[in-house]
């Protein structure tokens, strides 16, 4: 009898353990979540992340805390996130250049995102616009090409390996023209250099003050680097629409990524994919993203993988051909 009772007790204990485990898993999340943003507050990445996080907080019924940890082209915040437990309570919001660019131009001795972080989903995509000051003699792509042959041109960027730098180097390589990069410490000083005619041209992210200066007539948009025209600039053609054979397939776009410390449980990843997808359907998110000139995504892992494969290979090709390095 005692053996039977013992077996029954063990079975009951096992059943309770399974039930408890199921309840614990189903309860995720049961405490506040932190998303580290590896760039300063107020930028498009930060604002887009905060917009999505507000929606996710409602879905998860838990606070989501945003911590800005900028520096070293996003490496400081990324390293901090990678050191955390993969328990679903710490995530990283970053520009995709952390994965597609940094390991190639900075090397992997300090930090390798592929071995320390998992991509969860895209958080949005964004464009670069080719710009000149309003008083520039350059009025279109043809005159840009002609000017580059007549004199040495320079362009502003937010720094080595940033989207504007990569987009311009890709254009330079495609057209076979010479232009010199003048790197600044961020998008704002790169924009100010263009406004002040300290440089001839530049690719800048479309959003915030950049679009305001375009609408005010202080900057002239020549072309968009992506595959489709921007709704905010419907009369500005894409580079692929230029009629120039070398640019017929030109398409340089960039994205915001949601990442987690390596080894996050698949069920948590799937829960975040579904939650991001639901957030992207929100009318409020649409309005907020439209104001930032950030494009919404569907939130799936497959979408993120396809994006990284497509644009990552193009970026790698540009870095290799232009021999972009940071000493």
UniProtKB/TrEMBL annotation:
InterPro entries in the cross-refs: BUG, Bug_dom1
Keywords associated with the record: Signal
Gene3D superfamilies assigned to the protein according to its UniProt record, in alphabetical order: Bordetella uptake gene, domain 1, Periplasmic binding protein-like II
Pfam families tied to this protein: TctC
Signal peptide: 1-26
The keyword Signal is annotated on this UniProt entry: yes
Chain segments annotated as coiled-coil in the UniProt record: none
Keyword GTP-binding: no
Similarity comment: Belongs to the UPF0065 (bug) family.
Name of the protein: Tripartite tricarboxylate transporter substrate binding protein
